[in-house]
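Dear Dr. V.,

Thank you for agreeing to look over these. As mentioned in my earlier message, I'm a first-year student in the group and I'm still getting used to reading structure tokens, so any feedback on how I've presented them would be very welcome. I ran two proteins. I've put each sequence directly above its structure. The first is here:
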Amino acid sequence: MFVRILRDSLFRQKRRKAVVLFSVALGTAAAAALGDMALDVGDKMSRELKAFGANLVVVPRESARPIRIGGEDVSSLRLPSYLPAGEILKVKDNFWKNNILAFAPVLDLRGKARNRAFPVLGTWFERPIDLETGAGEKPLTGIRSLNPYWSVRGGWPADRTPGERSADPAEALLGAWLAETLRMGPGDLLEVETPAGKASFRVAGILTTGGEEAEALLAPLEAVWRLAPGRDAVSRILVSALTTPETAVYERLGKNPKDLPPAEFEKWSCTPFVSSIAYEIEKALPGSEAKVIRRVADSEGKVLQRISGLLLLIAILAAFGAALTVTSALTTSVLERRSEFGLLKAMGAGNSGVVGLLLAEAAILGIAGGLVGAGAGALMARWLSVSVFGAAVSIRPLSVPLAVAAALVITFAGCILPARRIMRLHPFELLRGL
């Protein structure tokens, strides 16, 4: 009997049912789209934020420790320390190799040309690396991958690989401020002198960064080694890693992972926090210390948290709006069907039976709206992701049952006021005029 009454009820008041179905589907589609994007937005936003530059810098452990004499910091007076060039690839060849997006070694020297002293930075511009991953093509890494926002007038220098020799001068980038000071442009030849030697560089382009590189000369690492014979080493390694924002607890405890309990340490070490990636790099590269560039890491974390909060807020508002529409439609339906509900109560159905009929109708509409909303939400998520990030999100199978569950929550939330109104109906008042 209940099933027959439910079947007949579903095919009456079709306009009201369509309003409920459309409202649930629309609210579910918005929530599902934002949910799919939220599951994928972390990695995509983090990759977009890599334009900020490196978020880790690997330095020799000796140079990372401060030296104090009489309460004064005299670290700047010590001799510079270096990392061996043969261990550069260990920065990526570790547990988090898939999260290391790009890295570039840097050798810091002081050079002089035309009576002007300036920094000389030896680095990789864009170089293929081979880690025996079996992926086919060798990935490219270097300072160009680390800083996609850098602007170069002219062209990028041709990177020299180890062992490559050429009679022609090596190409280099000249910082915008230094180029203006020396009155040089692309194609000019610059002779640089250091205490250890001399070398000529062909200016390939003028670099504009808005940072300290505007006052420096950037040249291939092997070419700068010629200005420092016997120093096949680097001063630091800049690393850009795909990370997850650290919680306050792990940010505090992660500074000394050895103090964590075993269970917490395992959870921390298997989560791509910037501190746990730094810890693995230090293990892979003995004698080094991976320091977090907090300005970049904190900016990434704040942006990701705000984006996640915004998506959550919009999803809640969409669900709340859908629930209000469902409430309005069902309340109107209850008012129009007062006589029917009064007759059911008079025949002994009681409040539980009548409310159960309303909830059964709502559940069927909620499941149907959830399935429609899940499909529409997947299409909406892919369209938004392509529009914002240039790549489609990955739709997970789990999103369909989650969308249906969200639709049922929206529908049942919209049933609260109509159900209370049904419970207040008295059969003798409704049937008196029949």
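The second protein is here, in the same arrangement:
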Amino acid sequence: MASRKSRRGLDSSLNSRDKELAAWAKAMAEARDGVDKVPAGWLSIDDLAGKMGMASSAMTPHVRRLLEQGRAEKMKLYAGRAKDGRRYKKTYYRLK
């Protein structure tokens, strides 16, 4: 994982006078852009907990048991951005 210092360096390189460096910095910044779209039928633990009126910590053992039994599947998607611009992954689940 890149350190905060290197991310700042990348962002400052976007305005560099060196055209080649600026082109590389732009390409690298665009590569980290974007948030995945969640397909229909996939829910996160927080979504499930909200729909069932339970705490997410109470939902985790139930979902884990479904995964062990093979009755559910999981997938990780980029769900959003942190304050410093990094994307973070979130796990989504679906019944088979």
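From my reading of the second output: The longest strand covers residues 72-81. Residues 1-5 have pLDDT under 50 and may be disordered. Does that match how you would interpret it?

Kind regards,
E.
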